[in-house]
């Protein structure tokens, strides 16, 4: 399975269109095997000035754990998502994402340490069209973008075809953009054909 980990600051990781892939899910698999690109020191330290761009990721995600002044751009992700736990001044732009479950882009969610301000989510396409249980053996449902923090700008994104689905423990909605925080700027996004 394709796994790449960035552990130093000042790194530009340019995939130049290459593919990082995991094992596609099926109804017979007990464990899902995802590919990933992870930006993390491996402990509580922060990385700075990391760029991840131009990758084609299949059945996997880009995970940014603690990073300031970073950029995640021009990636194509099928069956996964982009997520960042903590960081500031980070740009997520021009990515095309066909997520499997949960969110296409998820910022924040660490209850112990807040996300940090001045992050930008711009000009991304999140679309679950043509992804279904009947084609893949795995439910494709969930929301488009989740912001759990303050001072984030979300603009110019297209979020569509997020559908409602059932997990083993709860009903998951198909909202376009979910925001939990203050002083966020959400404008000029196209949110359509989502089901809640």
Give a written overview of the molecule.
The protein has 196 residues and is an all-beta fold. It has one helix and 26 strands. Strands 1, 4, 5, 8, 11, 15, 19 and 24 form an eight-stranded parallel sheet that branches. It is globular and about 40 Å long.
Name the features:
196 residues; mainly beta; 7-stranded parallel beta sheet; 1 helix; 44% strand
Fold blueprint:
Elements: E1 3-6, E2 12-14, E3 19-21, E4 35-39, E5 47-48, E6 51-53, E7 56-58, E8 60-68, E9 71-73, E10 76-78, E11 82-86, E12 91-93, E13 96-98, E14 101-102, E15 105-108, E16 120-122, E17 125-127, H1 133-136, E18 141-142, E19 145-148, E20 153-155, E21 158-160, E22 165-166, E23 171-172, E24 177-179, E25 185-187, E26 190-192
Parallel strand pairs: 1-4, 2-6, 3-7, 4-8, 5-8, 6-9, 7-10, 8-11, 9-12, 10-13, 11-15, 12-16, 13-17, 14-18, 15-19, 16-20, 17-21, 19-24, 20-25, 21-26
Antiparallel strand pairs: 22-23
Q: Can you count the helices?
A: 1
How many strands in all?
A: 26
Mean pLDDT value: 81
Please report the distance between the alpha carbons of the first and last residues. Answer: 34 Å
Radius of gyration: 16 Å
The backbone outline, from C-alpha atoms, is globular
Uncertain stretches: 132-138, 166-172
What's the oligomerization state?
single chain
Q: What's the SSE pattern?
A: EEEEEEEEEEEEEEEEEHEEEEEEEEE
Q: Which structural class best describes the helix and strand composition? A: mainly beta
């Amino acid at each position: 399975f394709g796994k790449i980990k960035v552990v130093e600051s000042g790194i530009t990781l340019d995939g130049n269109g290459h593919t990082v892939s995991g094992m596609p899910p099926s109804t017979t698999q007990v464990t899902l095997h995802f590919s990933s690109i992870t930006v993390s020191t491996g402990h509580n330290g922060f990385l700075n000035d990391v760029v991840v761009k131009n990758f084609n990721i299949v059945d996997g995600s880009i995970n940014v754990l603690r990073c300031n002044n970073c950029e995640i751009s021009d990636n194509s992700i099928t069956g996964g998502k982009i997520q960042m736990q903590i960081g500031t001044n980070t740009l997520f732009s021009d990515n095309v994402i066909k997520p499997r479950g949960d969110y296409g882009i998820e910022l924040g969610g660490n209850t112990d340490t807040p996300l940090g301000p001045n992050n930008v989510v711009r000009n991304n396409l999140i679309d679950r069209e043509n992804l279904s249980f009947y084609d893949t053996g795995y439910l494709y449902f969930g929301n488009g973008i989740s912001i759990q923090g303050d001072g984030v700008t979300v603009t110019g994104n297209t979020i569509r075809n997020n559908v409602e689905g059932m997990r083993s423990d709860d009903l998951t909605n198909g909202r376009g953009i979910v925001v939990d925080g203050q002083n966020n700027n959400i404008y000029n996004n196209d949110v359509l054909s989502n089901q809640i």
